Amino acid sequence: MEKVVIIGSGPAGWTAALYTARAQLAPLVLMGQQPGGLLTTTSIVENFPGFPDGVDGYELMTRMQKQAERFGAKASFGIVDSVDFSKRPFTLVVDGEKVSAETVIIATGASHKHLGVPGEHELENRGTTYCATCDGALPMFRNQPLVVVGGGDSACEEALYLTRFGSEVFLIHRRDSLRASKIMVERTLGNPKIKPVWDSVVTEVNDVAQGKVTGVKLKNLKTGAETVLPCAGVFIAIGHVPNTNIFKGAITTDENGFIVPQRGTMTNVPGVFVAGDCADHVYRQAITAAGAGCAAAIDAERFLAAQNH
Ligand SMILES: Cc1cc2nc3c(=O)[nH]c(=O)nc-3n(C[C@H](O)[C@H](O)[C@H](O)COP(=O)(O)OP(=O)(O)OC[C@H]3O[C@@H](n4cnc5c(N)ncnc54)[C@H](O)[C@@H]3O)c2cc1C
């Protein structure tokens, strides 16, 4: 029987592990299919406090793991297949084996949606990105034409943010109007640096042969015309999918699957807590995920203390 099981090993999971380990709860961290989480897929992280020269994403996550393990956190490569939160202790099925837990912290993150076009994946970290806040300030995007793909609030936010760095920002949208909130639409279309490209989709990211983004191939859905738009960066903002399928029916989520905490970080099931991007469709940063991991750990520790008295 584990006192605390943490599902996920991104910044939220390892921070929750650090705090619960220091509270002598010997948390078990189930690392899942992506040990270290999303940051392990990026090279330089420039906005995590404490690293004035930036830090490699993989190194940052390795350091978080080491720090939590120093205080007794246990790491396991397990993937959670299903959960039974209907009674305590909770049961998790991990790679076919049952694990019992007094409390659970869900930190399973979210995956970004991909365009699924040639060149997109090959040029990831070489001009293709899914996060303007994370990558927009990188030198390769400065004073260069940039492309944002999407038409919702996130795409508008990304485009507006990128006007600080790019020479111009092309907003590619498959329809002829944005589906973002009115205020965001006004701000976006009112910005002289943002140029909307309506009724169009990206069909290819160029240029894999050169090993960097040099432009995008576009198709106009109304006319069928194909063009190439030169740019140094493609920021894809077509949405995120939280990794919460296994909790369906057990944990309250919003219509997009993001977990909705009820009180602090506690979910609708007392004893089950949530942290990080699987409950956050707004900020989606390593530091906010880590902060939520800290909060979930403190909530879990207090929950256990209250149960034992
Ligand atoms: C390319 C890229 C660059 C980025 N750059 C930055 C940056 O510079 N600065 C910044 O602040 N943010 C950056 N981000 C965002 C940042 O990575 C995320 O906000 C952060 O990782 C979220 O942390 P998390 O712990 O909530 O989830 P994640 O890091 O996504 O971790 C989720 C964890 O859950 C595990 N998991 C999922 N399902 C299961 C399951 N069924 N069983 C067991 N485990 C499971 C996964 O294996 C993974 O370990 C970047 C993101 C990307 C994609």
Structural features:
binds flavin-adenine dinucleotide; 309 residues; elongated; alpha/beta; 19 strands; seven-stranded mixed beta sheet; 23% helix; five-stranded parallel beta sheet
* Structural class estimated from helices and strands: alpha/beta
Tell me the major beta sheet.
7 strands, mixed
Unreliable stretches covering 5 or more consecutive residues = none
Average pLDDT for all residues: 96
Report the span from N to C terminus: 19 Å
**Helicity level, as a percent range?**
10-25%
Query: Hetero groups bound?
Result: flavin-adenine dinucleotide
Strand content: 25-35%
- The SSE order reads EHEEEHEEEEEEHEHEHEEEEEEEH
Q: Could you explain the architecture of this structure?
A:
By secondary structure, the protein is of the alpha/beta class. It has helices at 11-22, 57-70, 132-135, 153-162, 182-189, 286-307, and strands at residues 2-7, 28-30, 44-45, 55-56, 74-76, 80-84, 90-94, 97-106, 110-112, 128-129, 145-149, 168-172, 194-197, 200-206, 215-220, 226-230, 233-236, 240-242, 272-274. Strands 1, 2, 5, 6, 7, 8 and 19 form a seven-stranded mixed sheet that branches. Flavin-adenine dinucleotide binds next to α1 and α6.
Summarize the structure.
The protein is of the alpha/beta class.
